[in-house]
Amino acid sequence: MAGKIVADTLETGAGADISTSYVVNGSAKAWLNMNASVTLQDSLNISSMTDNVTGNFSSNFSNSFGNAYYAPSGQAGWNTANTNARIVWTTHAAPTTSVHRFGVAVDTGTEEDSYVMNETYMGDLA
What we know:
5% of the residues lie in helices and 45% in strands. It contains one helix and ten strands, in the order ββαββββββββ. The strands form three sheets. A four-stranded antiparallel sheet has the order 4-3-10-7, with no helix packed on it. The mean pLDDT is 86.
């Protein structure tokens, strides 16, 4: 039997009220953690990853966003061979509602597959 729960507020264990719209609008709708082999360690709403070229990847969403104006953010970590800082740019190509392309580079600008990469996506799903 299917059902639904309708609520305008939630109460925390400490007795504080929080609007359900804050929970829905303030929660990541997709995120990923992957390694340099482009193996997803864990994810939410990511159907697969594409390794386009070294340091350039595409996240493929299981459920599309309502528009291409979602807010991506990312981070990457180094490995023992190269301890330069990592830069993640989250708009390597125009985002679509179903795919987001991002890149990773060392501080010199050279694109590189990092030891660990994370992306988080905020926005409304379709």
